[in-house]
């Protein structure tokens, strides 16, 4: 099983597969060993990766050179290759089995249950794993009302971020009268640092199609759209293949399962606009008009695409539906917390040892995710905070590590579930810089319709930029808070209503860091360039000359074997010398 | 454009505030009567070059809204008219509107322009002259015809058509857009509104190699700003620009979704992950040769 998700393909996993097949043939093992490409396995930081089944042995960071040795040792002689296995950070012995790796152990898979197990380009493999059975059940033995009741009882909530109960949304749309109704799958995953939707489509596209089919039956729709980001070429290709195959098998089209039910899906591509993830903008984008959000009500369930009742759900929500129908609402509701049921997929990225995609039950603590699954922070640095929910979310600081994660708890501490991006930050990440980063993003992506969002984000960004340049004034923090509240209150769509969150939550939890920038003109994390300077500690410098060789602007000079100096007028503060010095002689302040 | 309208609203004054209110209300399902004293809507904003405080082009904001108001099925424009009397109470008003004569039957006028030619007092009536369509190469005409044919039946066809052109040409040649506007019967201003809204569309030609730096959150905390700086230095252009020899265009993107490899750049289709600033010159050199 060779992973062929975007990250692994980028590291050359397809080349590895080719060599693997050649080598297996060379050894005459082609009848015993089958090489399968799977969708994203989730352990993206270790790519290219591969699993050997049924033993469940996990190999990582493969290079073409490793393959002949691996085939000979493992497949021919039956001796798994220790050198290519995963070694947990800080330990010496490799962990051979996938089931014993901490990263996988605490996960509970529902939406991603087929990840790394099936070839996403083959419908038969999906069917072999109970695929389309839920749809058969829904189409032949359940009424729309029963389907909606099942989803309502399961407690499934929208996985796109806001967490609206899915069953209620469906019911609302079902009850609206209309000659045509539409189903939309929102795969416009715009949050930077989040890629669970991409991964679900790449590893298990049929689960999404099946979920949409069940939803269509419940609502009474005959036409579905998948709105997908154009930045995801592999996902687009796989979903296209899956739709084709489903049509060939009669699972999409006219009179499915002879149950007198027609349904087909069309794919629509975005063109790189963050606001299109907002449902009314998304509708306008599909219609081909300017994708500005519009007033709600009317909600899409009343008047959506081309004025018809429309139901929009996120990719992950759709992927959960078939399991709920097949295994029942009670089973699903038994997982999670009181108000948030089931699991959530997070992309665990940033300053963390095990980067990748994880699916965990609601209610799990941040500590479990970051230390047990994520393997902690690299380089022995201190954990500082985790940013959850992208540009609409906020930071959760060190002190709240034992917070159980669900929709309500995250909102309480000023963050947000969002689509599930988790960016881990260590002591070297500056909170003012992070707030500035997100504001620059939302300011750029604001469609400009509402003044509060367009001008408010710009005004906040200007203040933050000033603070990060050491020109902050007394009262700036209070003004940011006031402005943030105004933008929240006066904007029409989710983008404007949530864009102050990164600023407000960093102020809430890291006010001292803002004050250090404003009062002491210091950046405690040494990130804001205007507030730091580099110099060389002459006691520690042995004059090896490495830094002067690496310096891009020739700002470092000195005789060989004697302490060097940095010319501050030339220094562009890029930090290359700091990273390259082996004696910790370059100091940043 | 809801089918069951909820009631009707009368808006007095066809300036930018009146226009925007009309559009919002009409989109929420109300029937809107927009009454304007002058012969056309637009108000003061149409006379301005730029708007406070962002110095945005006034006409660029206004023009699509003018077209939108004119085309909206829920909006009835009553220009050259004034309110005489308002009767009734909240929720049930009757308004008398006095319409000044235009001396032309607006329902019958097709805008053919024959009256201007026959007008004894020359230039009292003057139509705007339509600019002739730019002349395209035969090859381009064939191409856009094929593209339009492919998407003609699709619902919401403008986006797929623009995406297709963008893919073929690497940008949206403005001359082609004018033809598209004619062929699809969509106002040019509406096409430009879409073309300038999305990050993926470009109105200027781009370089042979497209260098894109991911500036998603994970890449940001792992050093993407340094990569942008290094690339700007190496190529001697800013983000969004193309080198003079048309060989490189530098762009940024919000997340490719391979955060495990942060920080990441792509050159054309090739991905370079876990990149350090020092490695940039080597990569660029590879594409220069």
Could you describe the 3D structure shown?
The complex is a heterodimer of chains A (589) and B (289). With 589 residues, chain A is α/β, with parallel strands linked by helices. Chain A folds into 5 domains: 2-102, Glutaredoxin, CATH 3.40.30.10; 123-333, Rossmann fold (3-Layer(aba) Sandwich); 343-426, Roll (Ubiquitin-like (UB roll)); 431-520, Up-down Bundle (de novo design (two linked rop proteins)), CATH 1.20.1440; 533-588, Alpha-Beta Plaits (2-Layer Sandwich), CATH 3.30.70.20. In chain A, 40% of the residues lie in helices and 12% in strands. Chain A has helices at 6-10, 13-26, 66-76, 102-105, 123-128, 133-141, 144-154, 166-175, 196-203, 205-219, 233-248, 279-287, 315-327, 329-333, 366-373, 407-412, 431-445, 451-468, 476-490, 494-498, 501-520, 546-550, 576-580, and strands at residues 2-3, 37-38, 50-52, 57-59, 182-187, 223-228, 264-269, 310-314, 343-350, 356-361, 383-388, 394-397, 421-426, 534-536, 556-557, 565-566, 586-588. Chain A has a 5-stranded mixed sheet. The longest helix of chain B is centred in the first third of the chain and has 14 residues, at 58-71. In chain B, strands 9-8-10-11 form a 4-stranded mixed sheet, with helices on one face. The mean pLDDT of chain B is 87. Chain B folds into 3 domains: 8-100, FAD/NAD(P)-binding domain, CATH 3.50.50.60; 138-197; 209-288, Glutaredoxin (3-Layer(aba) Sandwich), CATH 3.40.30.10. In chain B, 36% of the residues lie in helices and 18% in strands. Classes of the chains: A alpha/beta (589), B alpha/beta (289). Chains A and B meet through helix 1, helix 12, strand 9, strand 13 and helix 17 of A and helix 5, helix 7, helix 8 and helix 9 of B.
CATH-defined fold name of the largest domain in chain A: Rossmann fold
Strand arrangement in the largest pleated sheet of chain A: 10-9-13-11-12
The tally of domains of chain B stands at 3
Largest sheet of chain A: 5 strands, mixed
Strand content of chain B: 15-25%
The number of helical elements of chain A comes to 23
Tell me, what is the CATH class of the largest domain in chain A? Alpha Beta
What percent strand of chain A? 5-15%
Instruction: Estimate percent helicity of chain B.
Output: 25-40%
């Amino acid at each position: 099983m060779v992973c062929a998700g975007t990250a692994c393909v980028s590291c050359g996993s397809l080349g590895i597969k080719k060599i693997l097949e050649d080598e297996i043939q060379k050894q005459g093992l082609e009848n015993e060993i089958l090489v399968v490409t799977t969708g994203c396995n989730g352990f993206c930081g270790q790519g290219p990766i591969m699993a050997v089944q049924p033993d469940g042995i996990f190999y990582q960071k493969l290079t073409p050179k490793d393959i002949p040795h691996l085939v000979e040792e493992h497949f021919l002689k039956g001796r798994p290759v220790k050198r290519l296995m995963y070694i947990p950070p800080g330990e010496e012995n490799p962990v051979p089995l996938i089931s014993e790796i901490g990263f996988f152990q605490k996960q509970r898979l529902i939406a991603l249950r087929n990840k790394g197990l099936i070839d996403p380009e083959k419908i038969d493999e999906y069917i072999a794993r109970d695929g389309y059975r839920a749809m058969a059940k829904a189409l032949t033995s359940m009424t729309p009302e029963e389907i909606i009741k099942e989803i309502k009882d399961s407690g499934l909530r929208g996985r796109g971020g806001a967490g609206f109960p899915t069953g209620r949304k469906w019911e609302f749309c079902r009850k609206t009268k209309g000659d045509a109704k539409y189903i939309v799958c929102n795969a416009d995953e715009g949050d930077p640092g989040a890629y669970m939707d991409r991964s679900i489509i790449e590893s298990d596209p049929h689960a999404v199609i099946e979920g949409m089919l069940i939803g269509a039956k419940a609502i009474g729709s005959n036409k579905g759209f998948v709105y997908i980001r154009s930045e995801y070429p592999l996902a687009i290709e796989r979903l296209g293949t899956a739709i084709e195959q489903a049509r060939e098998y009669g699972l999409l089209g006219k009179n499915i399962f002879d149950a007198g039910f027609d349904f087909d899906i069309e794919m629509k591509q975005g063109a790189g606009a963050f606001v299109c993830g907002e449902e009314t903008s998304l509708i306008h984008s599909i219609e081909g008009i300017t994708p500005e959000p519009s007033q709600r009500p009317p909600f899409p369930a009343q008047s959506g695409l081309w004025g018809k009742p429309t139901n929009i759900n996120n990719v992950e929500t759709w992927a959960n539906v078939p399991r709920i129908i097949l295994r029942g609402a009670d089973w699903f509701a038994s997982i999670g917390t009181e108000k948030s049921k089931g699991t959530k997929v997070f992309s665990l990225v940033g300053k963390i040892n095990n980067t990748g995609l994880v699916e965990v039950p609601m209610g799990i603590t941040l500590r479990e995710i970051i230390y047990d699954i994520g393997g902690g922070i690299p380089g022995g640095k201190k954990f500082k905070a985790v940013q959850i929910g992208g540009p609409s979310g906020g930071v959760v600081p060190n002190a709240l590590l034992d917070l159980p994660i669900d929709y309500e708890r995250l909102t309480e501490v000023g963050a947000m579930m969002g689509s599930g991006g988790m960016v881990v930050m260590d002591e070297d990440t500056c909170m003012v810089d992070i707030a500035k980063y997100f504001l620059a993003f939302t300011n750029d992506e604001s469609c400009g319709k509402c003044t509060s969002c367009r001008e408010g984000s710009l005004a906040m960004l200007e203040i933050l930029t000033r603070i990060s340049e050491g020109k902050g004034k007394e009262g700036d923090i209070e003004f940011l808070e006031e402005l943030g509240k105004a933008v929240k209150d006066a904007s029409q769509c989710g983008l404007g209503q949530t864009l102050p969150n990164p600023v407000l939550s960093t102020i809430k939890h890291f006010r001292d860091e803002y004050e250090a920038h404003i009062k002491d003109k210091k950046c405690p994390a040494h990130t804001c360039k205007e507030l730091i300077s580099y110099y060389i500690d002459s006691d520690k410098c042995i004059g090896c000359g490495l830094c002067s060789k690496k310096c891009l602007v020739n700002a470092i000079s000195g005789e060989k074997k004697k302490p060097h100096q940095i010319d501050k007028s030339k220094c562009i503060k890029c930090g290359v010398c700091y990273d390259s010095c082996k004696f910790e002689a370059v100091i940043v302040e | 454009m809801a089918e069951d309208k909820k009631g009707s609203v009368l808006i007095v004054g066809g300036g930018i505030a009146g226009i925007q209110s009309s559009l919002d209300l009409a989109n929420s399902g109300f029937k809107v009567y927009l009454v304007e004293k002058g012969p056309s809507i637009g108000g003061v904003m149409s006379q301005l070059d730029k708007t406070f405080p962002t110095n945005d082009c006034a006409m660029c904001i206004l023009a699509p809204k003018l077209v939108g108001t004119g085309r909206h099925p829920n909006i009835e424009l009553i220009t050259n008219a004034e309110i005489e009397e308002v009767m009734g109470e909240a929720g049930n008003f009757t308004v008398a509107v006095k319409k000044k004569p235009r001396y032309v039957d607006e329902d019958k006028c097709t805008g053919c322009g024959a009256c201007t030619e026959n007008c004894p007092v020359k230039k009292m009536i003057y139509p705007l002259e339509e600019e002739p369509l730019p002349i395209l190469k035969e090859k381009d005409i064939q191409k856009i015809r094929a593209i339009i044919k492919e998407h003609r039946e699709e619902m919401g066809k403008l986006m797929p058509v623009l995406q297709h052109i963008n893919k073929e040409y690497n940008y949206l040649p403005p001359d082609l857009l004018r033809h598209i506007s004619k062929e699809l019967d969509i106002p040019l201003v509406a096409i430009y509104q879409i073309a300038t809204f999305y990050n993926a569309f470009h109105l200027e030609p781009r370089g042979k190699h497209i260098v894109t730096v991911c500036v998603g959150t994970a890449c940001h905390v792992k050093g993407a700003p340094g990569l942008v700086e290094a690339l700007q230095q190496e190529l001697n252009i800013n983000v969004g620009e193309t080198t003079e020899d048309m060989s490189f265009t530098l762009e940024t993107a919000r997340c490719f979704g391979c955060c495990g490899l942060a920080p990441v750049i792509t050159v054309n289709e090739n991905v370079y992950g876990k990149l350090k600033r020092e490695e940039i010159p080597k990569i660029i050199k590879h594409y220069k040769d």
